[in-house]
Amino acid sequence: MNKSLLLVPMGLSAIGAQAKNKAAADCDKPLNIIYIMTDDHSFQTISCYDGRYNRTPNLDRLASEGVRFDNGFVSNSISGPSRAVLMTGKHSHKNGFMRNDGTPFNGAQQTFPKLLQKAGYQTAIIGKWHLMSTPTGFDHWEILPGQGSYYNPDFITPEGTHREHGYVTNLITDKGIDYLEHRDKSKPFCLLLHHKAVHRIWMSDTCDLNAYEDQTFPTPETFWDDYAGRPAAADQEMSIDKDMDLAYDLKMLDSTINTPLKGAIVHGELARMTPEQRAQWDAVYQPLIDTFLVQNLSGKELAEWKYQRYMRDYLKSVKSLDDNIGRLMEYLEREGLLENTVIVYTSDQGFYMGEHGWFDKRFMYEESFRTPLLVRLPDCWTSAKRGQVVDELVQNIDYAPTILSLAGAAVPEDMQGVSFVPLLKGEKPKSWRDALYYHYYEFPGEHRVRRHYGIRTERYKLIHFYGHDIDQWELYDLKRDPMELHNRYDDPKMAKVQTKLHERLEQLREQYDDQSE
């Protein structure tokens, strides 16, 4: 029997308990923690994961000086809910923030920053919050309103809202370094740097506007997926061909091009630019617009042109992220902070880079379910193996318990995740989880992805799409069908696997106390 289907007790809380105070004991001083979360950053566009598209030397450095997780996943692939999971170590149905368009996050509940404060840590969050509430549990906070803006963004502080000149990724890094400069240096710290990038509509710093313009990217093998046997995948609104807006997403701003979302960029991001910024922008994009109008593309040619423009704009934003990671690392090295600081890099979920013909996220399919996770180990962990790759299944419910364990603080029993500090140490716990649970709720909603929940093991995935207009199961053998093109549900050859997956799924729904649909 495949070990991913064994129906055994997980013992995860026991693992977490063993790791509680283990991390701090290796170093003379308490560990500092910097948690960097980007938005919609795909693992495909980090070169230590996938070298087809770009190079990210500074992110690759985090992996080479620490740990790369190859099976890091989220529990609900959408921004706000993912952030609520981070804060609480609990699935969406337990922390109460299930949808981006739902009620504000309940800041009165237990969160890991509050527990760190009780353990003597200074806590700070700078950048994207996106939880429709005022941050709690932080000694210092400065957040973007909603999604925030790429150019000349507004920031909210306890004193009010103000606007700053510059590019948002640079500004968030500046603010993070400034916080580190002026913190109380007698106490350990936990700093959350939450970037807006690489969120739609993928606008780069002016210094990177010409980046990638001379590159042509390979079209994904599944770009023209016909979604056979997968009705939920067929009926969505995240297609590069049909749903990517020429003006809003791809910046083809001309009086002859009128699209549903054109006003959102004209009166939004572009209106925030200074004359100097706009001149730099137009110097690059106006020639692209002129060429596009002459080409008069349609059909498959237009769709594949859209894909190339999407990739170029997206990767320009990634370049600024990587450059700013390098700038932060230079500061930490100069100040001697790498000695006892753990650096975590991840995204709030994965993203589609044209796979299945899509952009965006939400589905339990691999590209959006899976997320990058890199952890740079502190220099004082001399016994830990650097550059290791971890294959165990980890999930964003594990981040809060892990951060608490790194700080030497107790992990509450009601947190549903488990500390992966043993994995950072190169250990292989025998009772590590054999399956992941996922639940997405936001339908009706943007992009029309149906509500669904499911289970992923080492080899298999079972998904249930449900709601007023759908009741559909999907089953994939990820070893034989890694691109998830062939739904094997009700295939007689998969009958035993299907039965065991259903049993294990119900066990997980009971374990996590999720009866919601």
From TrEMBL:
At the top level of its lineage, which domain of life is listed? Bacteria
User: Any idea which UniProt keywords this protein has?
Assistant: Hydrolase
> Which Pfam families does the protein's record reference?
Phosphodiest, SGSH_C
GO MF annotations in UniProt: hydrolase activity
- Cite the N-sulphoglucosamine sulphohydrolase C-terminal domain residue spans from the record: 354-511
The protein's matches in InterPro entries, at most eight in alphabetical order, are given as:
Alkaline_phosphatase_core_sf, Phosphodiest/P_Trfase, SGSH_C, Sulfatase_CS
Which CDD domains does the entry link to?
G6S_like
Which SUPFAM superfamilies does its entry note? Alkaline phosphatase-like
Question: What family, per the record?
Answer: Belongs to the sulfatase family.
Identification of the protein by name: Sulfatase
Instruction: State the species of origin.
Output: Candidatus Rikenella faecigallinarum
